[in-house]
């Protein structure tokens, strides 16, 4: 196993009506003037935003608001938020929403706390030296951004989608009320479950340094999400299933399920980022559409892990050769995707890239990872193109 | 499931030679004048203390030292540490050792950061409003105090052993090098594994609010420790097994394996605390000696959990009635204790209390928990006495 650091300072306040605690938490972490950052109208329509501002008003905490965070959040809005924070003297960012609002808030936080262009951090040019504190009221279980060190931003010019990770960006608190996720469209719920599982699967399919305890936590988490995703497909208002998935979402991406390994593979995410940059598809659905092709392309190079995954997570029949078991596990994942109406290829995702577009995505993906990357199997541009083609 | 908070801010730096990073970590968390608190001579004899002070010297960080923390750490030494810190202007506590040194350092931290008698916190009289920051270099995998909010101190007058929990006491960082645990006597290694498992078992055997994901993490952790405890019994220098157990020790007690439940049972710990207060036995061995009697006394009141534990952790045969499966699981735990030479009753623990002493312990235990306590089954003084008697 490899040495590792583990740092998850986010204070999680989990359960019904926990959003009522927002003012106390903001005060605990020193916020006096907030930017409340959210996405589309659902946070407004549901009345959540008003409940939050009423609570802040009652506590005498002042704030400005900035809506409009979209899936694959845009750099333009980040710049707008940075200017607004500077103009208004904001000292705390409150993200109300899912990964888009949180990622965007983190980027705004980096932009306020550091000189120069915030895109530099996403463009691998330099490291942030701080971040304005971020608090979260989570409304979508998916990205795990509420406890993670990472954020993903899309630069509109060239549709470049990039992630940046820094412990400075880890939220100070995360308010997690499973009831807030009940009004999500079924498709978004399924996308979230896919994303959650993928965050842990990316760490799991690695060729270096795996720890038994990390594996057992990862496998338990994956089984739980799989089971509860199927429950939610039939019963979206099931509180316990919502809660299981919501908490799994945080644990899947706060680092816990990667302790001791080489950092994981992450190529499914990288391949999807190019889809997301070019087509603005839902992240979870994009991951589902690409994963099977990735898995079949790489599994022979990481056979022991694919076999273990097949048996301990997908619980397939333990018979035949290692390859047969591994392939049975991959098929079982795709069957699971179909059961929750996730796509298993680009056509089902609703896109039909040309040869040139596939080549462009492979080229951008290779540039994005600095040439080649992967742990289950190191992929170069030609490999990436082959996987994109196989996923058509 | 129940609502919960989860807060584990400790920065974990895990792996070989990580103690070399101590000066950087102390600086990161603002320490300028340290009290280095440690236990017996092993930290001195092994050369670890010198390596640490050399690193601090090279970084220009000044410090004073206080050794002498013993298992079931004493209040007298805590008072001594508080005086020393005040006299020397200490602003950071570095615990080098196991749970005794860490718990004692936390208590010193409460004593320095709050007015009045520090014992008040352990005597349920009031809550701490802060704690001097604590950093840890861990040398024993057992108590989980390196990430937990709890510390246990014994007041010499009356041999009263009490725990106090506060988020203020959670260490800022924990340096965890599995190699540092390799020189432990085999008995202490086995005690540590027992304590680690018990921290999660106390949370697991509860009648309220269990979450599937918490259960799956707990079961995975318990299987991992059980397996690696047996490896270490035969091969104490096995680095990977040391690492598995060490990381499990932190996760077993940082709150992760109790999220969503009612807080757990904890009566085995409470019953052992009285043993530890009166006889100065090793904590882990005391837990092992009492657990089987506790389990047989309560299992019918928490049958579904004992059955699940038997199947998913102890992996016993799934046949017969629920009661038979549950009892098979309890027997399997005792068999496991015997395999690693842990006691399964007070006689094997090496003590032989009189009737009066048993009654005194039951009485003190009942007072300590405010009359009655437990989740698997609520126990009063008569129940406690019955369990003590059954464990003879």
Automatic annotation (TrEMBL), chains A, B:
It holds the Pfam family ADH_Fe_C. The keyword Oxidoreductase applies. The keyword Signal does not apply. GO terms for cellular component: cytosol. InterPro entries: ADH_Fe/GldA, ADH_Fe_C, ADH_Fe_CS, BDH-like. Coiled coil: none annotated. Gene3D superfamilies: 3.40.50.1970, Dehydroquinate synthase-like - alpha domain (1.20.1090.10). One of its GO terms (molecular function) is alcohol dehydrogenase (NADP+) activity. PROSITE patterns: ADH_IRON_2. Keywords: Oxidoreductase. It comes from the Bacteria. Residues 9-178 form the Alcohol dehydrogenase iron-type/glycerol dehydrogenase GldA domain. Residues 189-392 form the Fe-containing alcohol dehydrogenase-like C-terminal domain. This is NADH-dependent alcohol dehydrogenase. It comes from Pseudobutyrivibrio ruminis.
